[in-house]
Amino acid sequence: MAGTDRRRDMKTGGPAVILIEPQLGENIGMAARAMLNCGLDDMRLVRPRDGWPNPSATSPASGATIVLERARVFECTADAVADLNRVYAATARPRDMTLPVLTPRRGADDMRQAVAGGARVGVLFGSERSGLQNDDITHADAVIQVPLNAAFHSLNLSQAVLLVAYEWFQAGVGCQPAYIPNSRTPAATKAELMGFFNRLESALDSCGFFHVAEKRPIMVRNIRNFFQRADLREQEVKTLHGIVTSLVRGPDSGRI
Amino acid sequence: MAGTDRRRDMKTGGPAVILIEPQLGENIGMAARAMLNCGLDDMRLVRPRDGWPNPSATSPASGATIVLERARVFECTADAVADLNRVYAATARPRDMTLPVLTPRRGADDMRQAVAGGARVGVLFGSERSGLQNDDITHADAVIQVPLNAAFHSLNLSQAVLLVAYEWFQAGVGCQPAYIPNSRTPAATKAELMGFFNRLESALDSCGFFHVAEKRPIMVRNIRNFFQRADLREQEVKTLHGIVTSLVRGPDSGRI
């Protein structure tokens, strides 16, 4: 990430808004406007359907052009969240994911605490057509689900972005965060976490752990889930690498 | 008002949404969707620019057709609020009006109290171009103003409707559960967790992982810490046992 980007993000400190396969430029533009309404400016696009930049985003952004100009495009969700420490998945359908489910309001408190502790945070939003997929949700530490009319709960994409951004802003208007996690080392980035996952899964592949091939994806997802939930520190990811190395090397390694 | 309308309104009890001189059918459609997302269905239109019904509202309503079909058109604001007891004006610019100014959240509490007392309530929203005029605001008992980025506070019309409707809905949900673990299996007992810790640590002992003896206690504590934080499920502890077994057995185990 360029130095200017880093300075800018550190200034606002608010969540990055990560749109995965957004379809309509109009929704991207309206999401940009909603973000800037709430003081957010770090938009990230993963495989936008109609490419980027998209002229049809401009008018709905209604002046929030700075957000569109600074938007970054990524090939995959993993890359889009690589520099973040804590990620939320905005979805109405958590589908068998064992993750904490927060309302936007509690999610905003959670974000404020994380940011106060030095973390960089972001929120994933799925496409208009199908929402977030489980593979995207595996990058998340928690789900954000908006309590809505159960009989008609599908939000427009830009409306979903607005509610999350709005609650973020409101949480900052009132009292300051009460709790700052007393961590000795910074939270692991998603890239560090992904590095560990790849390492662990390839070790498990070598050992035949995933011996029923069709079950591999769900097993991988389940394993990533609980490591995600632990809100791992940088140092702890190193320890986990050490554990895998040690176990794989085995009793005959004679390190003592 | 027709008898059926009255029954319907009494059922939901939520605020009427009154759009004054709305310009774009798209915004009317998106507002209808946002309303129904939050359980509201009483939309009133005062002199919509492009007439009514407006076909360009249909697609953005995304299924909230019942709101569009039931929408009523009025020639003036006074008529549109005639049957209401308490009216709020959503505006960023109260312009010399001596009225209480509420956030959407406090406004929602206020509405809930009024409705609980038998009142019928509604919220006025101005046109995209110029917002509410003072003549409209004179019909209001209070102003609703959204705390937003002072440098960029102009909300899209449908976004403003969403925030008011959202806060109305949240005020009725009551306090939110912090954490809804959507887990298929129960949380692991501490005994199951301890069983895994002992297993892992003895495997690590065999591998010489704790080769500096005096550091062993703190390393054990750190490792237990992050597994504790993950709030592991029973099934996940079994998976972790499987991971350790598999890694220790190693690549030559030939399970495949």
Features:
homodimer; 256 residues; alpha/beta; Alpha/beta knot; 11 helices; 7 strands; 46% helix; globular; disordered N terminus
Oligomer: homodimer
- Rough shape of chain A? globular
CA gyration radius of chain A, whole angstroms: 19 Å
Q: Number of DSSP helices of chain A? A: 11
What does this protein structure show overall?
Two copies of one chain form a homodimer. Chain A is α/β, with parallel strands linked by helices and 256 residues long. Chain A has two domains: 16-171, SPOUT methyltransferase, trefoil knot domain (Alpha/beta knot, 3-Layer(aba) Sandwich), CATH 3.40.1280; 190-249. The first copy, chain A, is 46% helix and 11% strand. The first copy, chain A, contains eleven helices and seven strands. Chain A has a seven-stranded parallel sheet with strand order 3-2-1-6-4-7-5. The radius of gyration of chain A is 19 Å and the shape is globular.
